[in-house]
Amino acid sequence: MKTLRMNSLKAIFTIFFMCGIQLQAQDVERNNFNVTADVYSNYIWRGTRFGKGPHIQPGVKYEKGNFTAGVWGSFDGSGYSETDPYMFYALPFGLTLGVTDYYYPGLKLADISQEGGSHALEINGTFVKKGFSLNCNYIINEAGGAGSKGSDVYLQAGYNFDSVSIFAGAGNGWYTEDNSFNLCNIGVGTVKTIQISEKFSIPLTGQVIINPDKEQLFVVAGFSF
User: Fold this and answer.
1) 48-52, long-range: CB within 8 Å, 24+ apart, which pairs?
2) Nearest one of 72, 69, 131, 141 to 98, comparing CA atoms
3) Average pLDDT value over all residues in the chain
4) Helices and strands, number each (H, E), in the chain
5) pLDDT tens per residue across span 145-163
6) Which residue has the higher pLDDT, 12 or 112?
7) Which of 41, 53, 100, 145 could bridge to 118 as Cys pair (CB 3.0-4.6 Å)?
């Protein structure tokens, strides 16, 4: 099993690399690249807080048809940093399949060992139908540096109403205190648009999040640019 996971890890890194070198100059001309930046009061991911205080979360992505690849990051003022390459493909009936590499700068980039590995590789799938969404995620490797246990599972269901969204997520391994499968991320959120000018507006997102497993309550607000 360990050999299988290591081979899967190397295969995914190879796919990331091959997708990167196949981007053509003509795609730049067609404006297939996009840059985003968010600023959040806290970084809460699947019911767990990372870092301290406000986070800047930049992203660069490439889109062509139903395929998207990019790198997303989160950085605070206290030294926390995270850089996550990802890619996914959207199928026409509401299902999106992808893979994400959770990497933490400061750890050796090439370390994919079980003991001190700096990359947690996740296979993920999301199904969306009207306002309903279901997200399924599976970590394929144990990485001591990144903190993944291997076989970590996270499931989340949500529903978007006109002005409010609700969600509930459960997981094990990475996400809970004793590694057992438990509810860890329940919340409600809303979005308000701040109109700066006739052609420019900024969405303000707010969420209240409860982690029943760790008995934590969070409130988060952020701007997207």
Assistant:
1) 48/175, 48/184, 48/211, 48/214, 49/216, 49/218, 50/74, 50/80, 50/82, 51/75, 51/76, 51/78, 51/80, 52/76, 52/77, 52/78, 52/80
2) 69
3) 89
4) 2, 16
5) 999 999 999 999 999 998 9
6) 112
7) 145
Residue with structure tokens 């997200």?
135
Structure tokens at 37: 């930046």
Please give the Cα distance from 87 to 84 (Å, whole number).
10
Residue 105's nearest CA partner among 152, 73, 134, 135 is 73
Alpha-carbon span 125 to 135, nearest angstrom: 6
Which segments of 51-141 are extended strands (E)?
55-64, 67-76, 81-90, 95-103, 119-129, 132-139
Q: What sections of the chain are H helices per DSSP? A: 2-21, 25-29
Q: What gap in Å lies between CA 114 and CA 109, rounded to an integer?
A: 14
Which three-class secondary structure state does DSSP give residue 52?
Answer: coil
Using DSSP's 3-state secondary structure scheme, residue 9 falls into helix
Tokens of 193: 């648009």
